[in-house]
Every structure is written in structure tokens, then in C-alpha cells.
Amino acid sequence: MPLKVVLLLLTVSTTTGCALHGDPAGDRDPAIDIPAAWRADASREPVQGWLAEFREPALENLVAEAMARNFELRSAASRVRAGRAQARIAGAGPRPQLQLTGSASRAGGGAGGSALAGETSDRHGLNGQLSWEADLWGRLSDEARAARADWQATEADFEAARLSLAANIARQWFNLIEARAQRRLAENTVKSFEDSLATIENRYRQGIGDALDVRLARNNLETARANLLQRRRQQQNLVRGLEILAGRYPAGSLTHAAPLPGVPGPVPAGLPSQLLERRPDLVAAESRLTAAGYRLASADKNRLPGIVLTAGAGTSSDALRNLVDLDDLIWNLAVNLTQPLFQGGRLAAERDLAKARGDEALNDYAQAALTAFREVEDALDSEAWLLAQEQAARRAAGEAQEADMLALDQYRRGLTGIITLLESQRRRFNADSALIEVINLRLQNRINLYLALGGGFDRAAGPDTAGTK
Q: Which one, of 306, 298, 305, lies nearest residue 351 by Cα?
């Protein structure tokens, strides 16, 4: 089904029930034009895969561990098994049903009974019952197909959960690396402020500076120490969060010392919007739309007559050894024709319920598609903005470093005051911190793009998690 038909929502009114049974677009055009390719400009260099593109083997190993141990993912797998069982149950509807029943009884007579006093009798029975509802109008088949579509939706939900888990771990992984880089920067800042304070205190003892210089330098140092404690706490919280995602006990023992990697190669130009057709959440929404259509068809057919064929055979004997004697066999065959006439509005209400749920599924599908388009457009647009932001942040960090060194030199020579020195130190720290943050933001945005597309830039790759199946 072409993805753009989900936007039929903007033109559909009372025809939803018919639209659910085939191509929901019918002869209508969507009210919103969907571009054949994304509008954002990009390089033409090809990029394939997604998780492996970050070149972080430790991250790939952690994702593989999470795929086997994450408890929420296990719950999603259980829902898939439950959906498969429900589909099997519904699939049994059009098939004949055979039931075998055995019975045994003992009767005795007392003094006032019809049987002789003290006499008992045993009776054993064996009965088979065969029933089959003729699926004349395809109602039972519609119910079976609806259940199968529901099962396919749970399978797509499972794939969406796998993709989301891999993306969340990748996000947390790079957040952790940023937190460690920020912690190291905070440690270096504390050391730098300690050195500055020692210089200022030495000048004060020599009568060159005044007490205000010392107080301001000490304030700078203690503020840096408080920031360092915050960075350490943030890092430890991220470690435990990653361990939970991986299905581990949150002991805070996960370690990784590598720096933030570079963002994978540029986004290839002309990504087709059809890539979204593989997004698991859209696949799930489409399957639920299909299921709703079959249920609406089934509800319509509830008003039609039904034919049920039943057949039974059994035998009963006072002696267990004669139970299978064909001479004692009793059988019956019956054909029942049913036509609903009046049920207090139940059938009409069931049909209204099915149609309302079909409308709901169609609207959910359309909303999911619009959200997907927005997520991709936002991520593509952010690629260029974040690249420019990183370049500006690098220049700002370089200038702040030069200004800090110049201010310290001039302060030592008495050419500038303490306020200029402290301000230059703060600016250098903030510029270095902002650069680390924007590098991580670019990595996070690339993860968001992969997640929005349902996988890598290669259409054939599908919603994989880089070989973690």
C-alpha cells in the first residue's frame, strides 16, 4: 500500500468502512502532497547501515546483550507469541470441531425403590460430536484474517521495540561519553582554578593584590568544584541507566574510556520517502487498519443467515467390554439454519463499534505517518544546523582559550584586573563545555534520523539493529 494513502484522513468522511477493505485511497487524491524525496540538501556520498557506522564495537556488543536480556523486549516477544496463539484460535473457526465425551454411572435400588433391594447397575457411554459452521459469506474467514493482522501488528511492534531499544542505548551511550568528557573538563577546570588561586594568593601575600581578588578566585574554585560533583553524579546515573537497558543489575560498573566519535558520513541526497514504509510502527498501524477492516466486514455479515451442520454418534452399554459394539451405536445428523431477526439492537451496535474502531485505526495510521514525516524532516534539517553550530563552537572554544591565556599573562604582569581574568576563565570553560555538548547533539540527531527512517539509508537494510538479531 503506498504510504501517502494514509493521509486520506483529511478527505474521508463517511466512506471509511469501504476504504478499509482494499486500497484506502480509492480514486481520491491525498489532501497533502508527499514529496518523492526529502527536501533537505545533503551530500551524495552513500552511507549504509546505522549502528556500525559509529564504529563503536563496545556499543554494538552492549546492544546485542540488551537484545537478549532486556525485560521490556522480552515482554514484547511474549505479546507476539500471544498474538500468534490468538490467530490460531481464530483460524480454527471455519474448520470442523470434533468432541469425544465419555461417561460412567452406577445406580442402586433400596427397599422402596423400583430396583431390587441391594442391586446395583453400571452404565458406560461413549459419544462423539462433530459440528461445522459453513462459512457461506466469509464471516469466519474475516475474523481469522483480522486476528492474523493483529498478530502481524504485534510482530511489527516487537521490531519497533528492538529498534527503539538499540536507539535508546546508543543515545545513552553517547550521553555517557559526553558526561565523562564534561567530568574531565570539570576536573581540569578545578585544577586550573586552583593554580589561579595560588597565583592570586601569592600576589596578595606580596602586597600586590587585595582581599577581593582572593575572595573572587575562591568563589570561582568552589563553583567549579560543585560543578565537578554534579558531573560525577550525572555520569553515574547514566551508567546505571545503561545497565538497566542491557538487562543488568544497576551496579554502576560499566566502563568505557573512548572519546566521542565523529558523526558518520553525510546523509546521501535524494532519500526516497518510501523508506518510511519499513518503519515498524507504521507497519503495525497498517496491520491494525487491515484488522479493523476485516472486523467491520465480519460485523456486516452477522446479519446474514448461517448454516451449522452437527453430527453425533454414541454407544451405551451396561458392560464396559461391549462399549464399542457397533450394534449398540446411536447416531444423529442435523442441519441448523439461523437467521437473526431481532436482538435488541446488538448486531447494529456491533457494526457501529467495528466501524468506529476502523475510523480510529485509520486516523491513528494517518497521524503516525504525519509524525514520521515530521521526524525525518526535523532530523534532516537539524543536520545542517548542528554542523554549522559545531563549527562555530570550535571557533569560540579556540578564541576563549587564547583569551584565557592572554588574560592570565596580563594579570601576572599587572596589566589587567581580577575580573577580566576570572571572566576569561569562565568563558573558556563554557566554550569547551558547549563544544562537547554540540558534538553529542550531532550524534543524537543522527540516531534520531536512523530511528525516524526505521533503519539505515539503504532501503534493503530494513529496520535492523546492525546485526543484533
A: 298
Q: Quote the pLDDT of residue 112.
A: 55
Q: CB–CB of 150/87 below 8 Å? A: yes
Q: What is the DSSP string of 363-414?
A: HHHHHHHHHHHHHHHHHHHHHHHHHHHHHHHHHHHHHHHHHHHHHHHHHHTT
Give 275's DSSP letter. G
Residue 225: how many CB atoms within 10 A of its CB?
Answer: 16
CA-wise closest residue to 285 among 273, 293, 297: 293
In this prediction, residue 307 carries a pLDDT of: 60
> For residues 371 and 385, what is the distance between their CA atoms, to the nearest angstrom?
21
Confidence at residue 196, expressed as pLDDT on a 0 to 100 scale = 86
- Run of H or E including 312: strand 306-317
Question: Is the distance from CB of 60 to CB of 402 less than 8 angstroms?
Answer: no
High-pLDDT (> 70) share of the chain, %: 70
Least confident of 35-44, 141-150, 324-333, 365-374: 35-44
Element holding 124 (H helix, E strand): strand 120-134
Assign 355 to helix, strand or coil: helix
Here the cell at position 188 is 581540569
CA 460 to chain centre: 21
> In the numeric block, which cell numbers belong to residue 134?
459453513
User: pLDDT-derived band of residue 18, with 50, 70 and 90 as boundaries?
Assistant: very low
**What pTM was estimated for this model as a whole?**
0.76
Reading the block at residue 67, the C-alpha cell is 537484545
Q: Residue 218 pairs with which residues in a beta bridge?
A: none
C-alpha dihedral over 244, 250, 252, 254, to 10 degrees? Answer: -50
- The dihedral of CA 348, 349, 354, 357: what is its sign? positive
How far, in Å, CA of 373 to CA of 377, rounded? 6
Distances (CA, A) of 131 to 68, 94, 127, 310, 336: 44, 11, 13, 4, 11
Which residue type is seen at 92?
A: A
- Please list the alpha-helical segments (H only) found in 262-345: 280-301
In DSSP terms, 120 is beta-bridged to 108
* Local structure of 264: helix, strand or coil: coil
With CA atoms as reference, report the closest residue to 19 among 345, 286, 200.
286
Ramachandran angles phi, psi of 100, nearest 5°: -115, 130
Encode pLDDT of 220-241 as tens digits: 999 999 999 999 999 999 999 9
286/447 Cα distance (integer angstroms): 25
| Single-letter amino acid code for the residue at 358 | G
Tell me what percent of the chain is helix, strand and coil, each rounded to the nearest 5: 60, 10, 25
